[in-house]
Structure formats: C-alpha cells, structure tokens
Specification:
313 residues, 12% helix, mainly beta
Amino acid sequence: MLSLNVLLRSLAAFALVAGAGFARAADMPAAAAAPAGCAVDGVNGKVAALGGASAGNSLYGGLASVSLPIGCGFGAQFDASAGSYNNSFLGSLAGHVFWRDPARALAGVYGSYNFWNQFGGLNSNHLGPEAEVYFGRWTLQGVGGVEWGNSVSGVNGLNIQTFTVATRFFDQINLGYYIEDNFKLYVGHRYLGGRNAAALGGEYGIPLGNGMMASLFAEGRVGERNFNGVWGGVRVYFGQKDKTLIRRHREDDPIIWSDGPNGTNATSSSQAQAQQQQQNPNIPNIPNNPQIPCGVGFLPGFQPNCTLVGPVT
C-alpha cells in the first residue's frame, strides 16, 4: 500500500505546475490569449535517435510517439522507446491523456512501463498527474507521482546481486524559454530513483516543409550519487502543417519524459554464489563483469543504488 507521504508528495508536485495552470486559465482575459485551438491539431508524431553517456557508461537508442485528438478539448499520446545500456536491452511504453488549451495550459495523467533485460528482467513503472503552463515564450511543465517495480537476482562473478525497485515518489520538472520560435532552452529538476539531479537542455528546430521539422536536442544532468550524464540526438516531427517548434510543443505532441536515462532506484545485496544457487537453482548466471551498472539506466529505466559485497569466497 502506498504511504501517505508518497501520496502527499505526488499531490504537491502536481500543485506546483497544475495549480498555476488552472489559475492562469481562470484569471487571464480571453482577449490577451492567442486564438483558441484544440488540444491536438490533428494526428501527428515524432521519432528520435539519441546517444551519450550516463554514470560513466555509454548509451544509445530510439524513441517514437504518436498523438491524436479526442474531440477538441482533449488528446492522447503514446510513446515507445528501445535502446541499449551496458550491452543490455532497455525499453519503455508510455501514455498521456490530457486536456489542453494551447494558449494557456495542459493538465492530464501520465503512465509508463519500463523494462531492463538484466538479471532475468527488471521493470519499473510511473503513474501520476502531468501539467504544463504557458506564459508567452515561457513554459513550465512537470510530471510527478508514484514509481514502483519488481525484484530480481542474478549471478555476477562470485556474487549474487538482488535488485529491488522500491515504491516511492518521483517528479520531473522543466522551466523552458524559447529564445526564438525554433530554439528552446530549459533548466529542470529530476527526482528519480530516490535521487535529485539538476537538468539543463535545449532543442533547435529546422523546418523541412510538408508538415515536417527536424531538430537537434541535448540534455545534461548533475545529481546525487552518480546521477550524472549527458546525451543528445536528432528528432523528426510529422504533422498536419508546417509549424514552428514552439507551436508544435503546444499544439501537437506533449514532451516525451523518456528522452534520456530517467532512473528508478533499485537496492542491491550480494551473497556467495554457491550458497545462493543451492537455495535457488533458478537464479540466472551472468558473465563475470565487475562493471555491471550500479549507476543510471536508460529510457526511462533503472538507477540501481547498488553496493557490491565481495567478491565473496
């Protein structure tokens, strides 16, 4: 059962962004806003490829999203990703359902399922409210709620490692500014896997015509206990018409929160291999690899806070 503290922190994260958005929608005179539009301006999508490093390990992968209107006031987006971190597959599926006024704000619900093909398969999940607020060239956006997962074990050399994804609060928040219509910079905060990190990133759009736009994007993070990294890539947008980057972000598809390694903490313990295999012969063997990641995962995967005890003889 989720603790009262987790629920209260989820509500607090939502209030930070959504509260400001509803206040703006209620108080701002209609004459001061841009012409009203629907939550999603027709079916649209985007694909991306990225690469970089996190916690001292290389990573790469691809992402794709499709957004569609639900009537005029509401919309939905579906995200998928696949990549590799430390030679193990990581991937995710995510969904957004939301109300949006493109001139003022967005409010909705976000959920994701993430899989890391290590130690027989570790998964993490996120669920919570999502919101955005628009002030001219400024955008405040965030998602927060609960993350949870499973527990798995594997043989690493002479050690047995057990990884557990605990139930806890998470959030991701960005404050962005469009220097020009096709160039966005942002600063942000990440609380993922029980660790805090500061984020800095940007995106530069290049119009292609026929409803398409290419962009270059990057993000870097500096945080607690090796929650550090930098990555970047190329994205291509597909829409109903030609638009600037700021209009695509506010009229078409919401942010993909899995644009990089977004960790969920996994605590780890180790015991002697022979003893564990006698107790549980189903524990999988993995190669003797002292560099098995104790850092951050990917897309938006796993950030084990692991302590290797050993080698145990």
